[in-house]
Specification:
CATH class of one domain: Alpha Beta
Radius of gyration: 22 Å
Number of helices: 7
Largest sheet: 11 strands, mixed
Helix content: 10-25%
Oligomer: single chain
CATH superfamily of one domain: Pseudouridine synthase
Structural class: alpha+beta
Shape: globular
Strand content: 25-35%
Length: 286
């Protein structure tokens, strides 16, 4: 049994909208069957048809987890006694109700914890720690840039340089869930540094494959930074170009975290054995 308290977003909305958006694996037909069986309660009253819900309503759902959540096949790229690294697919958050963390910990005790994040539709390497001590060490190493992380992406157009380091300023608008870039420092804007290297240019498509190395790690940094200089990531619906995305038939950004190297410059305690270790996805294709 699952319990939900209706938040403001779904106030005066249909129950079906709330449940179908909350549980990505739930199909409308399953929802209808649950109504017929009176397996859904609102404020402890059984209901038999779709209805309007209101903020702070309590919804109880008697539907098994296998029908509520999507089924994922998520490869393990590396594992030892302290960490485990997954190749996260697109269309799944790192944390949240139906997330990579949910998948990882479905049948585990103690709980494994992600040490960093990727956007929902960015695929690639995500490190999980197997203890609080390990999580604290890796969190600090990410903060101090002692873990090198590279992305591979496909953008529109030919880059002006084969290698470059972009330095601009980023503002995050939490209400709109979007970021803005500026050439100059402004109040509320934070400095961002993005380095890229051209791996391949396709003249016929007018596209470039880039290796990206983030020297700062802000929200949507790669996507917004590349779009700002006129080379949007193909498939990016937020910062990209809709006509370009349609041309290449891509609905999500072609962006993957494909390389991690542990570059410890200070003591890493029980993780010192990882220093210098590289983890790389070899088969990323766009």
């Amino acid at each position: 049994m699952k319990e939900l308290i209706v938040n403001k977003k779904y106030d005066n909305k249909k129950l079906s909208k709330l449940l179908l958006e909350t549980y990505p694996g739930l199909k409308y037909g399953t929802f209808v069957k649950a109504l017929k069986k009176k397996d859904i309660l609102i404020n402890d009253k059984r209901i038999s048809k779709d209805c309007i819900v209101h903020e702070k309503d309590m919804v109880k759902i008697y539907i098994i987890d296998d029908l509520l959540y999507k089924v994922y096949n998520i490869p393990i790229v590396y594992e030892d006694d302290n960490i485990i690294i997954f190749n996260k697919p697109k269309d799944i958050e790192v944390t949240g109700v139906d997330s990579l963390t949910t998948y990882v910990n479905k049948n585990l005790n103690p709980i494994f914890m992600p040490c960093h994040r990727l956007d929902r539709n960015t695929s690639g390497l995500v490190i999980f720690s197997k203890s609080d001590d390990v999580n604290n060490i890796l969190t600090e190493k990410f903060k101090n840039h002692e873990i090198e992380k590279h992305y591979i992406t496909k953008v529109f157009g030919k880059m002006e340089k084969n290698n470059d380091t972009l330095i601009h300023y980023l503002f995050k608008d939490n209400k709109k869930s979007i970021v803005y870039i500026s050439d100059k420092p402004k109040t509320g804007y934070r400095k961002i540094i993005t380095s890229y290297k051209v791996l391949k240019f396709n003249k016929d498509e007018n596209t470039s494959i880039l290796d990206i190395n983030l020297q700062t790690g802000r929200t949507h940094q790669i996507r917004a930074h590349l779009a700002y200089i006129g080379h949007p990531i193909i498939g990016d619906g937020k910062y990209g170009n809709n006509q370009i995305n349609k041309k290449f038939n891509q609905k999500t950004q072609l962006l993957c975290s494909y390389y991690i190297k542990f570059n410890f410059t200070s003591d890493a305690g029980i993780l010192n054995y990882l220093n210098g270790k590289e983890i790389k996805l070899e088969d990323v294709k766009f």
